[in-house]
């Protein structure tokens, strides 16, 4: 029997305590019945709803026992092509421009200070 394919839109519809699906390593799990039993509390799991929770799941370092529970909650594979395409953000260009300007400023301020120091030394020694 072929696994069900879960789209991004379907995943986003299951982000509450009444119906909670998690995406972990390209697979979707219905963790609704497990929320009350989760050792870290249901808020930890709810915070990963509607997005890829793989990194959060792996960072915690779940035990083999926790990983053994996953197959019983498996409902389908995630369709990666259903993810919305991110549009370029104009503010990213503004941030890049600001960083570039501050980088130039960080270069010229010490240089100006050095020039001022040598000018002071030159003119104070000539008097």
UniProtKB/TrEMBL annotation:
This protein is called Cytochrome b5 heme-binding domain-containing protein
Q: What is its main location?
A: endoplasmic reticulum
Query: Source organism's superkingdom?
Result: Eukaryota
**Gene3D superfamilies noted in UniProt:** Cytochrome b5-like heme/steroid binding domain (3.10.120.10)
- State any single GO MF term: metal ion binding
- Using the record's annotation, list all stretches that form the Cytochrome b5 heme-binding domain: 3-79
The answer to whether UniProt assigns keyword Protein biosynthesis to this entry is no
Keyword entries, A-Z: Electron transport, Endoplasmic reticulum, Heme, Iron, Membrane, Metal-binding, Microsome, Transmembrane, Transmembrane helix, Transport
- Source organism: Bondarzewia mesenterica
Which is an annotated Pfam family here? Cyt-b5
